[in-house]
Every structure is written in structure tokens, then in C-alpha cells.
Design goal:
With about 110 residues, the chain is of the alpha+beta class. It has helices spanning about 50-60, 70-75; strands at about 5, 10, 25-30, 35-40, 85-90.
């Protein structure tokens, strides 16, 4: 699935023509009810981590046995066991350029 961008009030799968400086940051993703791997939570720069290790630490604190039922209730049965840290391209303000994670299937 290609990333989706919002540009001038429209949603498109075509990357905007304007050149943006992007950086790679890390956050948690999961499989949603449609079978897409998407960003966990909102697309706001304050939730992205500069280093993979920071995001891994957050993921480990989230995946405690007592929280499994909570994540099932919030994100659905299909999400259990699919949480992982992924890199996201982010604008300079920290927001990701898209919420979908491209997966290369074997």
C-alpha cells in the first residue's frame, strides 16, 4: 500500500511536488482491521522517537501481560502480537509524511 499524503486540503497517494527535508524517526505500528500496518496513535511529532532504542523501550513497557486485554479492546483481536517499531519519514516539525508502513512481502 502506498503512503497517503494530505496536500492543499486534498488526500492523494502522489508525493507533493514541493521539496521537504525529511528525517527518519521511529514509532510503534500494528496491523489494523483492514490488514494494513499503520502508525499506532496520532501522527504528531511529539510521539516519534529519534532512536529506535527509545521506541523499543516504549513498546516493551506497553506489552505487559496485564495490558493485553486492553490493547485487544482498543485495536482489535487482529492487532494482538503485531505491535513493532518501524521507521517513519518525518517532516522537520516531526509529523510523519504518512501513517502506513510499506511492507515487502516474501
Amino acid at each position: 500500500m502506498s503512503p497517503v499524503y494530505r496536500w492543499s486540503g486534498r488526500w492523494t497517494t502522489k508525493r507533493p511536488e514541493k521539496v521537504f527535508n525529511v528525517v527518519t524517526k521511529f514509532n510503534i505500528s500494528f496491523i489494523n482491521k483492514h490488514g494494513d500496518r499503520v502508525l499506532l496513535g496520532t501522527n504528531q511529532g511529539r510521539f516519534f522517537k529519534e532512536a529506535r532504542e527509545e521506541a523499543e523501550k516504549e513498546l516493551q513497557s506497553m506489552l505487559t501481560p496485564e495490558n493485553e486485554g486492553r490493547w485487544r479492546d482498543i485495536y482489535g483481536e487482529q492487532a494482538v502480537g503485531t505491535f513493532r517499531v518501524d521507521p517513519f519519514e518525518c517532516y522537520e516539525n516531526g509529523d510523519a509524511t504518512g501513517i502506513y508502513v510499506k511492507e515487502v512481502l516474501p
